[in-house]
Amino acid sequence: MSNDKANEFYKDLKKLAQGGESLLNEFIQKWLNQEELTRLVGNNSNMTGEIIKRLQKYQDLVTTALKIPTKDDIANVAKLVLQSEDKLELIEEQFQKLQNSLGNNCAEKAQVLADTLDKLNEKVECLSHRLREIEPEKERHTKKSSSSKEEKLAFLKEQLQIKLNESTSKMVENVLNQESPLTALKRRLKKRG
User: Fold this and answer.
1) pLDDT at 27
2) What's the confidence (pLDDT) of residue 11?
3) CA–centroid distance for 154 within its chain
4) Do residues 185 and 94 lie in contact, with contact meaning Cβ atoms separated by under 8 Å?
5) Distance CA 47, CA 43 (A)
6) What is residue 61's predicted lDDT score, i.e. its pLDDT?
7) Could you give the CA distance from residue 149 to residue 142 in angstroms, rounded to a whole number?
């Protein structure tokens, strides 16, 4: 029973609200249809526009003096932020391209280094082969001179191998220790932040 009473109450309330709304609409239309009111609003609209313009000027003066950002200032900052985001994306793309090209360059440098090492190894093998050929001839001439010459050649061969290993390790170290531009940029940004 209580549900029926509640439903009836809400139905009556709805009818009352609809009736009140229609009365209010009729009242508004009646006042808007009067010529006197439209003339009054028309005459005052010019004055209202002037007042609004003056208020905006005073508002600009006050916000400038108090260093308070205006709506236009915030809109300009938002535009600048969007522009800087776009530029940052372009810079990131360029760094990515540079990093990829440097990666290719490092691979090319490593290949050149490997080729150079191969050539140097071939020269060392050629020299050692030549030394092996020369050794029997030296033994024929004199034992003393051959032993001292062999020692000198062995020493030179050893020095050549040491220099070759040092230069190779330095070149490999230089190639491997190169920092990518993107990593360097991130490190610099972290220092600033």
Assistant:
1) 85
2) 86
3) 57
4) no
5) 8
6) 85
7) 10
Residue 182 CB contacts under 8 Å (≥ 6 apart), including other chains: 92, 95, 96, 98, 99
Ranges in the chain, pLDDT < 70: 1, 103, 131, 133-149, 163-185, 193
103's tokens = 């990666």
The pair of structure tokens assigned to 24 is 């209010």
Q: What is the pLDDT of residue 167?
A: 64
Q: Please answer whether residues 131 and 153 qualify as being in contact, where contact means their C-beta atoms are separated by less than 8 angstroms.
A: yes
Query: Distances in Å between the alpha carbon of 188 and those of 47, 62, 96, 99?
Result: 58, 41, 16, 16
- Look at residue 32 in the predicted model and tell me its pLDDT: 75
Q: 179 phi and psi, to 5 degrees? A: -85, 135
Half-sphere exposure of 71 (CA within 13 A, CB side): 2
Residue type, 73: D
The predicted pLDDT at position 54 comes to 92
For 50, other C-beta atoms within 10 Å of its C-beta total 10
CA distance 50 to 72: 20
